[in-house]
Amino acid sequence: MVYSIYTKVKFIYLNIFIDDMKAQKSHFSGQKNEKEAMESRKVQVVGNNSYAVSLPKKWILSNHIKNHDIIFMNITDNNELILTKSINSQSNAKKVLIHVDDKNIDTLTEFIMFCYVKSIDHIKVTSKTIDHNILHSIQSAIKYLEGYSITHEDETSVEISFLFNDIQTNIKTIQLRMYYLIKLHVSSLENKQYKILEETEHAVDRMFYLSRRVLLSCMSDYSKKTENGIKNEEDILYLQIISKRMESISDNILRMRTMDPSKSDIATLSKIIVFLGKLMSQKEEATRIKSEFEKITISSKNHQAFARLNRIHDLCRDAFDAKINMEFNEKIKDYAVK
Prior knowledge:
Strand 4 and strand 5 (81-85) form a beta hairpin. This protein is 58% helix and 12% strand. It has two domains: 1-16 and 54-163, no CATH class; 167-337, Methane Monooxygenase Hydroxylase, Chain G, domain 1 (Up-down Bundle), CATH 1.20.58. With 338 residues, the protein is of the alpha/beta class.
């Protein structure tokens, strides 16, 4: 189906969202129906310490599983075992075809960014003529979207594809990369290398949108959730908060370039970011790191810099609180197991 932006773009947003919601709803509501007509299987001992059970043929056929294919297993909080097919299959990649009226392209950039967050892997943009305005709208979007790249272009169409593999899109790796970029912000600000500062701020934005894409996919994909080490559903929200606070920290450091911060201001900023690094390294409990973090005192003769440093300090505190909540969830789960 081909859509026209000016009449259908809002419908596409809603349609994609509803499809995702239906998929999640059918999964949870389907659990009850499956239990009512549940098949039984005998567990067999294989060797000394292994157990085996056969898989339903209907499930094998409907998922097109062949010999030596990989399937993912996830144990839920309710101690249920969830089996899913490999998520790397090209046939499962989400694709969107959209037709653009060159007089009504003002929503194209927003639409591409929406597709990115919703884990759309392929977008084909068509028009009577792919002109400068359409290309500019596409470029304005993908410069913030890590992994999106133009893979084909001709006079009437442009194709955008997501080129990253699963290793590159691990949420811990993404957030650690965001921290290193923010650390580079401080160095660039101190040395008045404002062009580098702007470029690294754009890179943090790209990492932020990538983190949103990954975390949203974890909400509906059990294998993705397992790959990213997410054990509690609430942790997806807390990880999103951490990513957003880091993106906001990046924005605030960029704004400091016009405030002529003193050496003392830069030193204070560096202290704050050091504690953010400790949080990302996860070598200590967040509660312990936060108690030391709160000892930082902020003072400046520059009122603008003072306000900005306080804002960055507050954003870091929010990130600490999110991580502390994640650690609390893990402890509660451990107590429940015991």
